[in-house]
Amino acid sequence: MIEGEKERGRSQLRLDGAEVPVLPPRGVRILHSRDLFADVREIVIEHEGEHYRLRATKKGKLILTK
């Protein structure tokens, strides 16, 4: 039996009880938030000359502001 599920932000399939990771589409890069934030709660992303702040909350949510 194949079942789809989303656990801790990761897409997975279950195939007869075994977890099978779902690969992203071509051209999509996965960056883990733990690698982006390391030991800080906020990072600045520069996009087309503008600065955006990406903040991790205490509850594990992400907030992006301009």
Task: Explain how this protein is built.
This protein has 66 residues and is mainly β. It has 1 helix and 6 strands. The strands form 2 sheets. A 3-stranded antiparallel beta sheet has the order 1-2-3, with no helix packed on it. It is elongated, with a radius of gyration of 16 Å. The N terminus is likely disordered.
Give the secondary structure arrangement, pairings included:
Elements: E1 2-7, E2 10-15, E3 18-21, H1 33-37, E4 42-47, E5 50-56, E6 62-65
Antiparallel strand pairs: 1-2, 2-3, 4-5, 5-6
Give a count of the beta strands, DSSP E runs of length 2 or more.
Answer: 6
- Any idea what the shape is? elongated
Figure out the total of helices.
1
**Helix/strand/pairing category:** mainly beta
| Stretches with pLDDT under 50, minimum 5 residues | 1-9
- In what range is the share of β-strand residues? over 45%
Portion in helices: under 10%
* H and E string: EEEHEEE
Over all CA atoms, what is the radius of gyration? 16 Å
How far is the first residue's CA from the last residue's CA? Answer: 44 Å
Q: Give the overall average pLDDT.
A: 81
Which strand order spans the largest sheet, edge to edge or round the barrel?
A: 1-2-3
Quick description:
Helix content is 8%, strand content 50%.
Main attributes of the structure:
three-stranded antiparallel β-sheet, disordered N terminus, 66 residues, 1 helix, mainly beta, single chain
